[in-house]
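Weekly structure sync - notes
Attendees: PM, LS, DV (DV joined late)
Agenda: review two folding runs queued last week.

Item 1: First target. Sequence and structure tokens pasted below for the record.
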Amino acid sequence: MNKYKLTIEYDGTQFVGWQKQKNGKSIQSSIERSIKKISNEKITLFGAGRTDSGVHAKGQSAHFELKKKFELNKLKDGLNFYLRPLPISILNIKPASKKFHARFSAKQRTYEYIIVNRRSPLTFQSNQAWIIYKKLNVKKMKEAIKYFIGKKNFNSFRSINCQSSSSLKTIDKCIINKKGNYIYLLFSAKSFLHSQVRIMVGTLVEVGKENIEPKEILKIIKSKDRAKAGPTAPANGLYLKKIKY
């Protein structure tokens, strides 16, 4: 068998998420169909992160196996041809070792969240960012985000649908950058709880609105109570940016 590793970019707006489901179109099933068209083999595609409905990716990773060996550029071009006109692009493809697994071999996942902070509504990027009309205090948000770094119990920042057996997670890096009206939030960890990044972003926005003081983040974490944290930020501002192996 020949194992291949993909790097994938997609706009998640029209999909039910990465994982194939009976109730709609998924990124996973769309790529699997394209692989079958070019190879005439039915395969299972394994992704590094199961992004939710509406969440995008700039650097999702996935792997699959084929009996037949393909020239890499021909395989990439063929997959992109069959994926048209869907908003999915295969950015790179390379051979993978037998031990490689897109999900379990990942050492770090980096998510980016994009906020547009202005009084005027979004037009071109209406499905690619969270528009917030009230001016945010980014200085306070930068102070607050530091409290997420390290190994902590993030039970206050997990959705009710989270199936993880433990809410202990280690956040390696959290960064906020502001460029004009755009605020970029970056989070890196080996893994995250379901909706963790979006709930952290929603809570940081409450800090930016000055409804929560930066140091209150520590109290929210210690409470282990989802009701104490902020709202879940919309899916359309979230991007799976990079997988590190």
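Item 2: Second target, run right after the first with the same settings.
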Amino acid sequence: MGNYIWSDRPSHTAFPVASAGYSFIFAAALTTFVFALLQLTVLALVSLAATFFICYFFRDPDRVIPKSDGAVVSPADGKIILAGPVENSPFFNGRGLKISIFMSVFNVHVNRIPYEGIIKTVSYHPGKFFSANLDKASRHNEHNAVGLETDQGKQIFFVQIAGLIARRIICKVKEGDKVVRGQRFGMICFGSRLDVYLPLDTNLKVRVGDKVKAGTSILGDLA
């Protein structure tokens, strides 16, 4: 595949769906079936539309991952709402780079590993549920922070942050896991945000307003 690789085995279905969505899809489909049996046509149609939307929300498309040396890929689909240096990073001593990605309900919500290395920390923090596009969401919202050390000894942190209606953060990696760039590691249900913290000397490749895709868009190059 030239300059791209598969980090996960490709799916064998035309429309792969994340396993976290199965229960939501089943509940919506069952509700549609009951409304149809009761001949509640309008409610059945509304419920059917909701079922299709839930399937769409939990879609989990395969992605090919760039092989470029030093490339840090986006861990989420969405829009860049912050990209630049921060003075007081919660993870680095001193300054670092912070990139914030806002995921609307229309984005793919499966999250992917931004760089290969070893998972050093996984830290869940309960909190509030402000709208994920607000800056205070990084500090106050429920979140799950994952710390990764690259083979070159550099530190990368990526933080899954719940949003206004998001109430479930899924993270499938644990301390000590060896991971590869672009590998699926979790998701956040129904609208959310993901913050990435990189060393200050990283060559930033994105700016505010850019649209990115998990696993394929390059956020920056490690020096």
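Discussion on item 2: The radius of gyration is 18 Å.
Action: LS to circulate a short write-up before next sync.
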